[in-house]
User: Fold this.
Amino acid sequence: MRALLSIYLWLIGGLYFGTVAVVGSLLTYIIPREKLDPWLKRWLRFLFRLLFSRVDVEGAEKIDTRTTHLFMANHVSLFDVPLLGATIPQVVQGVEAKEQFSWPIYGWTIRRLGNIPIDRKNIHSSIRSLRKVEKLLQKGRSIIIMPEGHRTLDGKLRPFKKLPFHLAKQADVAIAPIGLSGLYSLKPKGSWMIRPTRLKVKFGNIISLDTVRSLSVQELMDRTRKAIQALVERP
Assistant:
């Protein structure tokens, strides 16, 4: 029964997401991203209704939409990106694995939305990508990045990479920690099954610019990891 439900959810969810991706990408040619973004968020939010999964958001009022942020969240599932896109109360661009930009439809969509590819297997290429991200942050564009670099295998936080924290200090930008809960139950890495569940996106207290400046890269990474860990709810 669960397998049949998963097949149904992949079909209906995939068809809906593909339609939203194509329509949204085409609209970027004629509508500025800032005006299109509220519609994209509504459409992405509806995706989770189709998956019979309730989305709760807590702490979004902590985000000053007039300020540039480097959002950091735990990396759990393929559904991280649409969930974050639906709930972050700002126009954001994401940093995603290079190979995802070659996926049919999805790759075109994330390019149209301005996401930045990163080659996780090549440190020099990763540094070049993060320099592009740094320039975007300095221009006032908020960015979302997953400091673990890879999805969790067991629902727990993986070790963080240092590069995102070098980026925060070099770009001189505040960090907005986010905890994602429920996605590991919805669709964990290594499984094709989808299990409808309750999802939660919890925004933590901003790690201020003064704090980013005063801490070392290691201290900043530890501080952010602790903040995200506290935001993630146990199943």
Q: What stands out?
A: The radius of gyration is 17 Å.
